[in-house]
Backbone:
DNA sequence: GCATGGTCAATCATAAATAATCAAAAACAG
DNA sequence: CTGTTTTTGATTATTTATGATTGACCATGC
């Protein structure tokens, strides 16, 4: 088999399986370990695959895996709940919508379930933008300083440019929801961006699993009376009185 | 058999089988290896097939010249050259620099070699931003519409926000460099962003391997007299007279 | 501590592919 | 028919790809 032909096959296999070991490739392509290793080195150098210990992974999945600890750990918590919340939220997007997607893990999950490619999307998350593009959505990104470790775009430039847009729908994550404090987050700059985005949106959806209720963080970015909350378990009655709450069953 | 006739047959065979070895062709066309090789060289030069070690592959699977090649496919061309160019360019970044990094594959490679985390960076490439962040650099991103398939951020928002910045250094990729046409790219929107970025930069470096010289694309974004060109092979003398050219040896 | 199993880069010899060169054969113009 | 050009096949040295081997490295378990 031609070298180039084999390498193309490796790229296909890696992209399809997302992750593959050297041993699997030697088996599939009937080559020696040394050859496969050389191929992986070459393909990695050409930025066509991501070489890891023991094999290779596709570039897409690697982008997600390079996330810093904090985000990874966060994502592990309440996966089931976040999944159904995201799945439901995605159904709310219609054609012609101009959608703002906030940075954060819940909203990142939301993008996985988005099927509408007729709507237009704008986000302040680097990874969110990349994911939307990969799905074939018409995507814009806000400009500004990138904050580590959440990889959210923040700062005066960001706030200024949001003000020019008018969203039909905004999907926001939050660190806490409380009656008086409203929606809160620990970072001042992120809070500012969120609050301006909400101001520019016709409808705002807050995606929050049940653990977020009662939590209060440093800065408030939204009053709960002005948002629709999408969650997985019915919260205390006082929340239902003050805000519009949609409860999504776990097996939605 | 006529030479031309045989060559046409080779093209058909290659296109049909997608990949074929020299040995197979000698068998099928009843010619010597030397003849087949000569044919492959000629057909490759005429851009009718893709010559690889051991045989040939069809063009359609690897590169379509009609549209802009996707980022992935571009990345595998001239790896060594791009490597040494990027490596050198990275050494030009000092503390206190405010650096603009253009979207594109060469500049993406550049980021791999960046060691200075004291400088501040701003880019219009999604992947570029992510990579800079992962390296621990203070990074900003321009806002605007994201263009597929290059994943560059473009549009009026983008142009407007660049104008507020003043870069000490700008690193730009290009599709072509010519004496009269200057630096050119096939996309109008990308060209606009590039030209504004250059205007806001104190020094502009154009990263271009030797294959880019003499190429002209649809839109000009820079005059070569106003940029420093970093390349891998000494170009024609007329370029040296009109612009500042730094030639980086292959094993830099 | 030591051994073990797995991965990996470096090295080597072998095999294959290639470019360069040359001479013979074919096509062609005068 | 003669001299020239083109094409071809064979031969050569050079380059490239490959598989096997070695020792290094690291985590795991004894």
Residues:
């Amino acid at each position: 088999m031609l070298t180039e032909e084999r390498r193309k096959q490796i790229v296909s296999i890696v992209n399809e399986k997302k992750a593959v070991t050297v041993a699997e490739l030697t088996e599939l392509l009937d080559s020696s370990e040394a050859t496969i290793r050389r191929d992986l080195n070459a393909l990695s150098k050409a930025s066509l695959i991501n070489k890891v210990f023991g094999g290779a992974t596709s570039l897409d999945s690697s982008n997600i895996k390079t996330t810093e600890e904090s985000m990874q750990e966060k994502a592990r918590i309440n996966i089931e709940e976040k999944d159904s919340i995201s799945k439901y939220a995605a159904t709310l997007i219609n054609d012609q919508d101009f959608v703002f997607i906030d940075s954060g893990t819940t909203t990142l999950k939301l993008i996985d379930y988005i099927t509408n490619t007729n709507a237009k999307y704008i986000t302040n998350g680097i990874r969110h933008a990349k994911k939307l593009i990969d799905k074939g959505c018409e995507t814009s990104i806000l400009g500004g300083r990138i904050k580590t470790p959440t990889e959210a775009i923040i700062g005066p430039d960001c706030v200024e440019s949001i003000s020019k847009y008018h969203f039909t729908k905004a999907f926001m994550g939050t660190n806490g929801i409380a009656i008086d404090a409203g929606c809160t987050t620990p970072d001042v700059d992120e809070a500012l961006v969120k609050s301006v985005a909400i101001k520019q949106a016709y409808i705002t959806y807050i995606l929050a699993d049940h653990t977020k209720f009662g939590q209060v963080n440093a800065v408030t970015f939204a009053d709960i009376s002005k948002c629709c909350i999408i969650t997985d378990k019915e919260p205390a009655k006082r929340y239902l009185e003050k805000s519009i709450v949609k409860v999504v069953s776990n097996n939605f």
Q: What stands out?
A: The longest helix of chain A spans residues 3-17. Confidence is low (pLDDT under 50) at residues 61-77 of chain A. The two ends of chain A are 48 Å apart (CA to CA).
